UniProtKB/TrEMBL annotation, chains A, B:
<dbReference type="GO" id="GO:0009086">
    <property type="term" value="P:methionine biosynthetic process"/>
</dbReference>
<dbReference type="InterPro" id="IPR016204">
    <property type="entry name" value="HDH"/>
</dbReference>
<dbReference type="InterPro" id="IPR005106">
    <property type="entry name" value="Asp/hSer_DH_NAD-bd"/>
</dbReference>
<dbReference type="InterPro" id="IPR019811">
    <property type="entry name" value="HDH_CS"/>
</dbReference>
<dbReference type="GO" id="GO:0004412">
    <property type="term" value="F:homoserine dehydrogenase activity"/>
</dbReference>
<feature type="binding site">
    <location>
        <position position="190"/>
    </location>
    <ligand>
        <name>L-homoserine</name>
    </ligand>
</feature>
<feature type="binding site">
    <location>
        <position position="105"/>
    </location>
    <ligand>
        <name>NADPH</name>
    </ligand>
</feature>
<comment type="similarity">
    <text>Belongs to the homoserine dehydrogenase family.</text>
</comment>
<dbReference type="GO" id="GO:0009088">
    <property type="term" value="P:threonine biosynthetic process"/>
</dbReference>
<comment type="pathway">
    <text>Amino-acid biosynthesis; L-methionine biosynthesis via de novo pathway; L-homoserine from L-aspartate: step 3/3.</text>
</comment>
<keyword id="KW-0486">Methionine biosynthesis</keyword>
<dbReference type="InterPro" id="IPR045865">
    <property type="entry name" value="ACT-like_dom_sf"/>
</dbReference>
<dbReference type="InterPro" id="IPR002912">
    <property type="entry name" value="ACT_dom"/>
</dbReference>
<keyword id="KW-0560">Oxidoreductase</keyword>
<feature type="binding site">
    <location>
        <begin position="9"/>
        <end position="16"/>
    </location>
    <ligand>
        <name>NADP(+)</name>
    </ligand>
</feature>
<keyword id="KW-0028">Amino-acid biosynthesis</keyword>
<keyword id="KW-0521">NADP</keyword>
Amino acid sequence: MKDINIGILGCGIVGTGVAKLLMENHELLKSRIGTGLNLKYVADLDTHTPRGITFKEGVFISDAEQVLNDPDIDIVVELIGGKTIAQTFTLKALENKKHVVTANKALIASHGNELVKTATANGVEYAFEASCGGCMPVVKSIRESLVGNRIESFTGILNGTCNYILTKISKEGCPFGDALKEAQAKGYAEADPFLDVEGHDSAHKLAILAALAYGMEINLGDIHVEGISNITPMDIEFAREFGYCIKLLAISKNEDDTVEARVHPAMIPLDNPLAHVDKAMNAITIDGDASGQTMLYGAGAGMMPTASAVLSDIADIARNIISGCGQRVPILSYPGDNIKKIAVKPVSDINTGYYIRLAALDQPGVLSRVSGILAEYGISIKSVHQKGRRANGTVPIVMTTHIAREKDVQDALAKISNLDSIPEKSIIIRIEDKLNDQ
Amino acid sequence: MKDINIGILGCGIVGTGVAKLLMENHELLKSRIGTGLNLKYVADLDTHTPRGITFKEGVFISDAEQVLNDPDIDIVVELIGGKTIAQTFTLKALENKKHVVTANKALIASHGNELVKTATANGVEYAFEASCGGCMPVVKSIRESLVGNRIESFTGILNGTCNYILTKISKEGCPFGDALKEAQAKGYAEADPFLDVEGHDSAHKLAILAALAYGMEINLGDIHVEGISNITPMDIEFAREFGYCIKLLAISKNEDDTVEARVHPAMIPLDNPLAHVDKAMNAITIDGDASGQTMLYGAGAGMMPTASAVLSDIADIARNIISGCGQRVPILSYPGDNIKKIAVKPVSDINTGYYIRLAALDQPGVLSRVSGILAEYGISIKSVHQKGRRANGTVPIVMTTHIAREKDVQDALAKISNLDSIPEKSIIIRIEDKLNDQ
């Protein structure tokens, strides 16, 4: 069997990692797969900045077209990122009947349905284990390991930047801005942290995983997204008092093809396995009708962990090539004809528990008026804590509710915000707690 | 494509679960795989006890030979367990060129090398995801997801019975015997709990996973095994004071083909992700040179979680059949020619931290004599705690050590046990703590 020829597009952090791994573990990979994985090209506009790798003559090039048009290239690894040139190159590679491996969650979440169709039509793979959760084998687990299950729900900590920041606020009580600055200084957050801290990166991953889990088209547009920039040390402290921690979660449920998919900070009880996932680590719990709950945990980003996931896709494709089978597992978990277009339930229709923090003037009767409004909307209060008293100012009133409908909570809060005795904006954080009402 | 025909041997708990799952999720599986998985036979000597399933006419039979000899059967699912008739049937199925799926860790750990050779020679699969860790996708993760990694070590909680018992002792302070009785009453432990509580079930899984991870033959004989029957509430309580919990671990390391593999109770720090794996749950951390540490977590046993794992193997084989590729991934992770025969390092040669509890007469000079003996063997004491005083009796002296060689610790303890002032047998528990010496 001749070697499998690989061309990498984009030699940034992950591209460099994949090149290193292919070279350093070449013999290991060959001894397991039975054929050499030959790194024929690494293409990047910048071929001058040192990457700490010694490429063989002719490998490190600046022209991506050379990779896309070389008939010897079997697998193109797209690690450019973004949705512009990466999309063009991916399409061209697929049309040239080259398998494509990528970590590009933004591109898949936005244009995955068409790219998957193009790949299928051309008889090649479009593989993206590295797009969701770094080295955690979440794509493979949903597509293959849990294939016998009706997947009922999954909940993930899918963004290491946010988890690092929340861990830091939680452990040190520092405000969001300081925690973000440290995350940037340590390389856990990008200079422009918008996609991460506002939850969009998690939403990209959620859109991909929901499609795989439920046999639906990728549907990023319908996903409700909130980030963590409003999370305060005070709310984290109150959460702890109630036996919860706060995580940015990507949450998805499927009951009879009514799909929930949302990204937001949430309180989870400390005995939830996700509660102990700290710093920049990622994890996901997946609930199947047969498996019960399983969890995967690992580095969600970083050069070598992401490269490890890219390699798992490369090896899978190499094994398909060697054993002569194409498209052995449907790219989106289900064959195209069996993929449904499913609208995601609007967030106003979800039912969950709520933590509500009001800044109230310290006057008699405030609690009575607030609880009256909640009752009017059918919201059942689980606990109320009035935290200290302050003269001529506001005091925090913290409440938790039993399971309530989001729209009722939002409407009640709008009415509460009109009260003279509630001068500041109220904070709500959803509580994800299966035992919430017991 | 015609349906894939499946015959189950053994209709106990897991066999019943697999039959149920194949029937209840038949349409789901067909929509994902593209072909029906037809349950043609379920063979068990006892066809009279109700299983809560309505089989079609002719499916539930008492003659296993009918399954093994039916030319239409593609996949035989061996769920008989044990090493006698299960081995005979497995061999016959493989020789009849039927793929075999199993959950039988005892058989694989003991006779897996030969069974894998037989399967390979006959061009069929021998698949055993369900043998290790129930629904956790650990076999697939090592064989496929981490294929690009040099796996450096893994540590697993692989026996739900032991983990349930240790959790119970830890939370309620009850003695081992009471915890075992409750585990039996709740169905978490078998009437004869020997294989579970003495660590042999964990050792079976460890032998299988070490082979997959390191490209070595399955080597059960060399694995050092200790169970949990000597663990007392007192030691768990001391562990907690030092910031540890006690788990029955299957531990394996590979440094340049020097392999450690051992099963024993160990103290792990509370910030180790395995420390929060409670009750009957299983988990495994795997350290790869690229991936860093990943963890899998899930139900390690039970009817439907195990059935979920069996289904993942059945689906993989069905996909191979449909796409016309045989033996796409080597059964033991590496092709036969690349599998090494590696001796496991004797436990006397390992280096780790130790917790030592001595029952000492409450006399002056005991500690001096004990620490003198430890010093003589080059063992460095990290902390000493003398817990309370008791007149005319023994008091516990609890010590932790820095990293030491097992043989030195055992020799020192033998010498200590000869002291008149140490009238009772000393307890040692290994401390698995990467930060132990910092």
